Amino acid sequence: MRHLTETTGLTRRMRRLRRTGVLRALVRETRLSPDRLVYPLFVRYGEGVREPIPAMPGQWRLSVDQLAAEAAELRALGVRAVLLFGIPEHKDALGSGAYDEAGVVQQACRALRDADPDLVIMADVCLCEYTSHGHCGVVRGDAVDNDATLALLARTATSLAAAGADVVAPSAMMDGQVGAIRRALDAAGFADTAIMAYAAKYASAFYGPFREAAGSAPQFGDRRGYQMDPPNAREALREIALDLEEGADIVMVKPALPYLDVVRAARQTVAVPLAAYQVSGEYAMLVAAAERGWLDLRSAALEALTGIARAGADILITYFAKDVARWLA
Predict the structure, then answer these.
(1) DSSP per-residue codes, 113-181
(2) CATH value at residue 63
């Protein structure tokens, strides 16, 4: 009897290495692991507060006294980095809560550092949660004053570094913000504090649940005048290059899944660590579809995050971080 290869002409059979789960795992090109994940946390004032976020089922607004338990859970799961967002008690035109030494995120940094000295603490640097108008900087008339905002962002970053943040993450999309923050950190003695730049942050429809969670929706207009226009990809590479020139240690693409082409282009262009943020809307739509029985949440979430990693992201910022760590265990 002639061998099958003689009758079909097939010499390469790609299915050979797909036959079993063990074989598939052995030759897998892209692997997820808990140490690549960053878990975003929303921190608020109060005591004993664990407040559910309706638009993001499974996520919470936590008071500072809840963070030690959160850090212990993350440590047990192998997730070793968090990204902090603050919800202030009071807001004003200049977002003073962002750079208050006793601000909620500053308190959170200290509490997490005490609870887990090895945890990587990343802190968002922006004013939108803290301003009465909801924009990311100082407003003059009906526009954000880029240059007047830089000093406040630098002051915020310095206060967070003093509170124990390992990484500050400017997200306001002000021109020159990374350079202003780097200079301020170095002058204040925080040369070792890293900057993760939201370098390619798009004016996206996928931020809606976050704005509910953080109470950061603008009270007038929108942010399209300073966040990136979604149709533009080459512009993202210019933004990334400028942030690197100014001293960024890590660059980010946000959102992740609708901008995989930008993640790939950035990976092919830069050698620094590349982060991608699977934002609130990406999380919420998967959870909502799963609640309706339209998707299997575990499979869909893992597939989406694998796609982001396959595109080239080294660091995955995701609200699924704890779930993924459990699924991979």
Answers:
(1) HHH-TTSEEEEEE-STTTBTT--SSEEETTEEEHHHHHHHHHHHHHHHHHHT-SEEEE-S--TTHHHHH
(2) 3.20.20.70
Identify which of 99, 122, 106, 163 has the alpha carbon closest to the alpha carbon of residue 37.
122
User: Structural domain tally of the chain?
Assistant: 1
* pTM as predicted: 0.94
Nearest to 164 by CA among 75, 253, 77, 103: 103
Q: Given 61, 91, 135, 201, which residue is catalytic?
A: 201
Beta-carbon count within 10 A of 227 CB: 20
Q: Is residue 4 part of a domain?
A: no
Extract the tokens encoding 261: 């082409």
Reply yes or no on whether 254 is catalytic.
Answer: yes
Domain hosting 305: range is 30-328
In a domain, 5, yes or no: no
Locate 186 and state its tokens.
């170095």
Tens of pLDDT, residues 60-94: 999 999 999 999 999 999 999 999 999 999 999 89
Active-site residue among 135, 223, 254, 322? 254
- Is there a domain that residue 109 lies in? yes
Would 19 be classed as within a structural domain?
Answer: no
Concerning whether 91 is annotated as a catalytic residue, the answer is no
240-279: per-residue pLDDT in tens? 999 999 999 999 999 999 999 999 999 999 999 999 999 9
Residue at 3: amino acid letter: H
